[in-house]
Amino acid sequence: MKRYAIGIDLGGTSVKYALIDNEGVFHFQGRIPSKADVSADAVVGQILYAINEVKAYAASEGFVIDGIGIGTPGIVDSTSRIVMGGAENIQGWVNVHLADIIEKETGLSVLVGNDANMMGLGETRFGAGKGMTDVVFITVGTGIGGAVVIGGKLFGGYANRGTELGHVPLIANGEKCACGATGCLEHYASASALVRMFVSEAPAYGYTIPDGGADGELIVRLYKEGHPLAVDCLRRHCRYLGQGIAGFINIFSPQLVVIGGGISDAGQFYIDMVKEEAFKNAMADCAVNTDIVAAALGNKAGSLGAASMVFDAGLDGK
């Protein structure tokens, strides 16, 4: 039987939204600015605008919506209803009773989850991890986010405060991370860290950064051309990321580690470099059933995961 849910993927720049069925098919989708730099009320207004667009489409097609799933930056409480905080890229996004607010305005049941968790759930249900029960998902971008699926269910730790995979300490006595701790995986292995490394070492290689600045795309292109600066930086980046992933393999022994984020689109060579480093450092008995692959869903993963949360919970309207 076909079921339908609204999947919302909230970010610091945009709100991506869709009407998705329980087979992962998108029937309607859109994207609008999130207004995250304005206020929490402005963000809620954008979410409601998106939901009303989807509701209008569903009504025109005669589809019955089971509920709404929302993926958001930050820490979400264990009831999957309140954004506690931790979303520095959204103005005033602290202690927001998001599910209550949206339910009151839309008349539909609502569940809320962390955005990285929703991406991981989407990849597990419909993407690279389809058919798997135990998956670690890593998204490598401005920071490093993560999700852990154990026995087919998202694992969040006590009171849903865990799985901050980007903030596992990697380098003792290392540099300060934006989170306030020292030597975090995110600080050394994110795409931002790769660019920072590249820019800081460019003078030593006699390389002049272009007027538009450097980004991951430039570094990958130069790597493929054999530029020594790019080769050195990308290899170190993959070493840091691979060592972090080795730790996750030793802890969770997953069937699959899925790597998402823009830099994972660099090509299979990138995944292979990370994989080589991870398996070199993981315990063989822990890694025997594990593979490491690129994410498959791109920017659809968050919306799919949010909708999956509705289907998994068995919501049925209001």
Structure at a glance:
The protein contains 10 helices and 12 strands. It is α/β, with parallel strands linked by helices and 318 residues long.
Task: Outline the secondary-structure elements.
Elements: E1 4-10, E2 14-21, E3 26-33, H1 40-61, E4 65-72, E5 75-76, E6 83-85, H2 98-106, E7 110-114, H3 115-126, E8 135-140, E9 144-150, E10 153-155, H4 185-189, H5 191-201, H6 216-224, H7 228-252, E11 256-260, H8 268-281, H9 284-287, E12 291-294, H10 301-313
Parallel strand pairs: 1-4, 4-7, 8-11, 11-12
Antiparallel strand pairs: 1-2, 2-3, 5-6, 8-9, 9-10
What does this structure look like?
The structure is a single chain. Helices cover 39% and strands 21% of the residues. α7 packs across α8 (268-281). It has helices spanning 40-61, 98-106, 115-126, 185-189, 191-201, 216-224, 228-252, 268-281, 284-287, 301-313, and strands at residues 4-10, 14-21, 26-33, 65-72, 75-76, 83-85, 110-114, 135-140, 144-150, 153-155, 256-260, 291-294. It has 2 domains: 4-115 and 299-313, Nucleotidyltransferase, domain 5; 128-296, ATPase, nucleotide binding domain (Nucleotidyltransferase, domain 5, 2-Layer Sandwich). The chain is α/β, with parallel strands linked by helices and 318 residues long.
